[in-house]
Design a protein that fits this description.
The protein is α/β, with parallel strands linked by helices. The protein has helices at about 15-25, 30-40, 45-50, 60-85, 95, 115-125, 130-150, 170-180, 185-190, 190-215, 240-250, and strands at about 5-10, 30, 85-90, 105-110, 160-165, 220-225, 230-235, 260-265. It has 2 domains: about 5-180, 3-Layer(aba) Sandwich (Rossmann fold); about 195-275, Histidine-containing Protein, Chain: A. The strands form 2 sheets. The chain has a 5-stranded parallel β-sheet with strand order 2-3-1-4-5, with helices on both faces. The model has no long low-confidence stretch (mean pLDDT about 90).
């Protein structure tokens, strides 16, 4: 169950590198095209994908719940594709979706800003000023996306196993490094354990989706953890009815063997609900 994640900057060459690496290794590439193709199976429209894919939230309460629901559905799509093994997850915070799975090979593709602008202008046949604006906007959106949803610095090198500067290295050399690195014994030996954890992540994601879609639960202030199919609910809800809804949602997901309820019912509401 080899999994490669590729984080990239716009214009860095991540697109051709990902495609070439997938072709060389015989892996399935999970990118924007793959997501759009499978999206209808997860109640995701092109409009939703355009609105939320790799973007920070709108910070409008009623809209953000729908955005978060769509985000979780994209994440479930990616996780279920990853479970099949031998995949390259291109963007979408792939490595952050797979915490504590040590068989993931985390790659980042970078290049200097001016070089990326020039490449994007040539690739898209657009004015350099427009390319400059697009690359800058992309950098801010993706950095904001990672910071908000995963609370980390997009550029921190410690979150990657391999960082490739495509000004210094050719695309062919980059592909070779990726293909060689994923065969490292430290990754290969941890595949089976990674598969178990990935199944738990899929269960967790399905429960998160059910919780967000459940209109009986007004605010989302509790955590969901899963280990070998055992679900633990921790945090607080505002009523016994919400507590029951949370337990019902968790118990309805395939693969759940037990639900441990550690939720607390509190008698106050957040300021947004005060009259």
């Amino acid at each position: 169950m080899a999994i490669i994640t590729i984080s990239r900057e716009m214009g860095s060459g991540g697109i051709p590198i990902a495609h070439q690496a997938a072709e060389l290794l015989g892996y399935t590439l999970i990118d924007g095209d793959t997501i759009r193709e499978i999206a209808p199976q997860y109640d995701l429209t092109n409009e939703i994908l355009t609105q939320i894919d790799e973007k920070p939230p709108a910070f409008i309460e009623t809209l953000d719940r729908q955005i978060e629901l769509g985000m979780h559905r994209i994440q479930l799509l990616v996780l279920e594709q990853a479970l099949k093994g031998d995949v390259i997850i291109y963007g979408r915070g792939g490595q952050d979706l797979l915490p504590e799975i040590k068989s993931v090979y985390r790659v980042r593709v970078i290049a200097p800003f001016d070089v990326r602008v020039e490449r994007w202008a040539e690739r898209e046949w657009i004015d350099p000023d427009l390319a400059h604006s697009m690359v800058r906007k992309s950098d801010h959106q993706r950095a904001g996306f990672i910071k908000y949803y995963y609370d980390r610095n997009w550029e921190d090198p410690l979150h990657y196993d391999l960082t490739i500067n495509t000004v210094r290295l050719s695309f062919e050399a980059a592909v070779a490094l990726i293909a060689d690195g994923v065969k490292d014994k430290n990754l290969v030996e941890k595949k089976d354990d990674g598969k178990k954890k990935l199944k738990d992540l899929i269960i967790q994601k399905k429960i998160q989706i059910a919780r967000l879609a459940d209109e009986r639960i007004e605010d989302i202030f509790f955590n969901i953890s899963v280990k070998e199919g055992v679900v633990t609910l921790e945090g607080h809800v505002y009523s016994q009815e919400e507590r029951k809804a949370a337990k019902d949602d968790a118990g309805s997901v395939d693969g759940v063997v037990e639900v441990i309820d550690q939720l607390k019912v509190v008698g106050y509401r957040s300021p947004s609900h005060r009259v």
